[in-house]
Amino acid sequence: MKVIHIEELDGTDRDVEHGNWRSRRFVLAGDGVGFSFHDTLLKAGTETEMWYANHVECVYVYSGTGTLVDRETGQEHELRPGTVYLLDGHEKHTVRAETDIRTACVFNPPVTGREVHDEDGVYPLLTADEA
Prior knowledge:
This protein is mostly beta strands and 131 residues long.
């Protein structure tokens, strides 16, 4: 059993900040449980393009407001506390954060903790051995 308090991740290699967002990663590939689990902040007034070509992501919004845009269809979805979205089709998407948006995210396959979005918004597919 592991118990982790979010502040224990601050300033560690599990605390990743990159421009529009900050992700604190509780569970990573190296933990060997088959998924990764993150607390991610999308900063107010930002627009972040993402595309998880190599991962499935499930996101639960627990604070803040914004819009999720499916860049393939143009469809827009309201983001607010209590919203879940599942990127099970590797959709290219954009998150427009009206306010700071706090989310809990699960990735499969799990990320190693070293990933950042490339120029296309994609996380590379890394294994725990490469971490």
